[in-house]
Amino acid sequence: MRIAMIGSGYVGLVSGACFADFGHDVVCVDLDKAKIARLEAGIMPIYEPGLKEIVAKNAMQGRLSFSTDLARSVADAQAVFIAVGTPSRRGDGYADLSFVYAAAREIAAHAQPGAVVVTKSTVPVGTGDEVERIVRETRPGVAIHVVSNPEFLREGAAIEDFKRPDRIVVGTEDAVARDVMQEIYRPLYLNNQPILFMARRTAELTKYAANAFLATKITFINEIADLCEATGANVQDVARGIGLDNRIGRKFLHAGPGYGGSCFPKDTLALVKTGHDAGSPLRIVEAVVAINDQRKRAMARKVIAACGGSVRGKTIALLGLTFKPNTDDMRDAPSLAIIPALQDNGAKVRAYDPEGMEQARPLLDNVELAASAYAAIEGADALVLVTEWDAFRALDLRKIKTLLRSPIVVDLRNVYAPDEMRKLGFEYTSIGR
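Request: output the structure for the sequence above.
Response:
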C-alpha cells in the first residue's frame, strides 16, 4: 500500500519506517528541508535505538523515501497520516492544532478520491470532526475518509512497541476506511495483535486517557515515596507489594523526580483543558499535573538538604539530562527544573548525558557539559543521579569516592542499594527509602 506520512519527527519517522518494514511503500514528508536532506543522507534527527538501521534498510530497498513536496507525495497515496506536532499552546495549555489543520487543508487539496486521512498526532477529542470539516470544505463532493489512529510508543522502545503493540486503536465507523486500516496493519493482525475499532472521538480520548492514567501511577508512587521517607518505610518494597496485584500491575511504579517528555506533560494538561471545556472537570488529573510540577522543584531542595543545607559556592555533578534513558529528548525533563534551582541557590553545575548533550546545550545556561561521567564527577562536592541510563548503573563507586570532594550522592532514581553505598562511606540519599 502507498502511504504518505506528513511530519518526520519522532512519531512520523518511527511509524513511517516501521510501515515500510511491513512492506508498504512509504514517503515521509517534512517542510524542514535540512531535516529531509539529513534523512536522505542517513542522519537521524532523533536518537532512538534501532531507528537508523531500519531507516537505512528500507531506504536502500526502495520502500522508504523522504520529500518536502507534500502535494506530490499525497497525490497517489492510499493513506495519508498526519504526524505533526501538537505542542501545548502558550498561555493556556491547550493543544496547538494549527499544524494539524494546515496539513489537513493541503492534504485535502491534493489527495486522490477515496484516500484515507489518518490522524496519528495526539489530538483532543473532536479534532477529527474539524479535520473532516476542513476536508469537505476544501474538496466538496470528493470522498476522502478521516480516521483517528493514536500512537502508543515509548521513547527508547518505539520500534518494539510499534511492531509488537499491546493494541492498535482505530477510530472510524466508515467501512471503506476500516478496510484500508486493516490492510495497513495486516502484518500485525496476522500475529494476533488486537485491532480495536471504535468511534473516532472515542479513539482520540483513549490516547489521552491512557497517558493520564500512566502519569497518575507515576505521581501516586512518588507521593507514596514521600510518605515512606516520613515514616521509615521503603517505597520499592511498597511498589512490589502492590504491583504484583494484577489489578494494579508493576509498571510505572518507580519513584523518581517526576515525569517529563513529549507526551505526559502536554497531554495531561490538554486533557484537563478538555474537561473544563466540556463541563466535566478531571480533578485527579489536575492534581497530577500540579504535584508533578512541584516535585521537580522539590528535588533541588533534596539535593541542598543532602549538602548540609547549602550549595552556595559548591560544584554539583549531575548525571543524566534527558527525561528518561535511551532518548535524547529534553522536553520537560526534570533536569531542566533541578539545574536552575540549584544555580539560584549558588551552585555551579557540571553535567553529563550519553545522548542528550546537544539537545540540552541551548536549554541550559552556565552549565559545564563534561566529556564523561567521571569527568563530571571529578572535584565535585556532590553527585546527583537524575536519569537512569544503563551506563550509570555500574559506575566504579570506589573511583567516584576518590574523585568527589565530598562523598555525597543523591540518587533520584534509586539505582544503587543504600546499604552498599553507606558501607563504602557515601552520604547517600535516595527516593522513598
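Residues 2-198 form a domain with the Rossmann fold fold (CATH 3.40.50.720).
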